[in-house]
Amino acid sequence: MNIKILTPEYVVFEGEVDSVLLPGKNGEFHIMQNHAGIVSSLVGGKVNLYAKSIDEAYAKYFTKENEKDSVFSYPIKSGVVEFNHNKGIILCE
């Protein structure tokens, strides 16, 4: 599935991932392949991308959480996510 993470200043990430874990108002939620369409607000926390690797151009923004599982995290203060038809956009600060 394709995920794009944007801030007002720059593109944090754009590419294919296996899944993404997001910090929602009522707790974390995981979006996986073929997930139902969703629009949700996000709170402060980490956006975790589950992917085999991420492009070098975006790697500087991420911390690798786990060597074994290839989890890459990006801290956010707040934001919104829209996901539909295996494409997601995360707008955050």
UniProtKB/TrEMBL annotation:
InterPro entries: ATP_synth_F1_dsu/esu, ATP_synth_F1_dsu/esu_N, ATPsynth_dsu/esu_N. SUPFAM superfamilies: Epsilon subunit of F1F0-ATP synthase N-terminal domain. One of its GO terms (molecular function) is proton-transporting ATP synthase activity, rotational mechanism. This is F0F1 ATP synthase subunit epsilon. Residues 1-56 form the ATP synthase F1 complex delta/epsilon subunit N-terminal domain. It comes from Chryseobacterium endophyticum. Its main location: membrane. Produces ATP from ADP in the presence of a proton gradient across the membrane. It is a peripheral membrane protein.
